[in-house]
């Protein structure tokens, strides 16, 4: 089994919590849609290490990786995706591979889910993400 690990990167802004979304530039089917950034772990690679590596490559940020979100997503028979909470330790996110980046609150996130602006595979996380964004 291979794993894709995605980061639910949070920041605090003026007493509210925001989530980092990244706009995919490929493949064609999902180009323009927004996702939790991340990518495939190498065989045998620790999943937290894989997420730190992917976010450094894709966004030029160093993150602290926290707990996992509840849901896992089966992408293919041999490929499962999971998400971990993360916070930036160093750097400012830059869209190295993505078309764009944005920080969203719970209302933005839910609106984007309703209007089909999120990558379909990531929609399962919206209730948990929105709940934490409202709670914090
Ligand atoms: N994927 C879906 N949602 C995400 C991420 C990071 C990835 N939040 C899917 C898209 C690709 C596969 O996982 O089919 C590998 O991701 P990447 O290496 O192209 O980012
Ligand atoms: Mg990626």
From TrEMBL:
Its cofactor is Mg(2+). Keywords: DNA damage, DNA repair, DNA replication, Hydrolase, Magnesium, Metal-binding, Mutator protein. It comes from the Bacteria. PROSITE patterns: NUDIX. It is an enzyme of class 3 (hydrolase). The keyword DNA repair applies. The keyword Transcription regulation does not apply. It catalyses: 8-oxo-dGTP + H2O = 8-oxo-dGMP + diphosphate + H(+). Residues 1-126 form the Nudix hydrolase domain. Its EC number is 3.6.1.55. Belongs to the Nudix hydrolase family. PANTHER family: 8-OXO-DGTP DIPHOSPHATASE (PTHR47707), NUDIX HYDROLASE FAMILY PROTEIN (PTHR47707:SF1). This is 8-oxo-dGTP diphosphatase.
């Amino acid at each position: 089994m291979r794993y894709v690990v995605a980061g639910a990167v949070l920041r605090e802004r003026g007493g509210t919590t925001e989530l980092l979304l990244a706009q995919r530039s490929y493949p064609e089917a999902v180009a323009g849609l927004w996702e939790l950034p991340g990518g495939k772990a190498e065989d045998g690679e620790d999943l937290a290490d894989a997420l730190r590596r992917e976010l450094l490559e894709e966004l030029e940020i160093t993150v602290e990786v926290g707990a996992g979100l509840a849901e896992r997503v089966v992408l293919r028979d041999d490929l499962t995706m999971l998400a971990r909470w993360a916070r930036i330790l160093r750097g400012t996110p830059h869209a190295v591979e993505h078309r764009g980046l944005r920080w969203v609150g719970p209302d933005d996130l839910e609106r984007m889910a309703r209007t089909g602006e999120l990558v379909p595979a990531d929609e399962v996380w919206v209730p948990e993400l929105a709940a934490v964004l409202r709670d914090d």
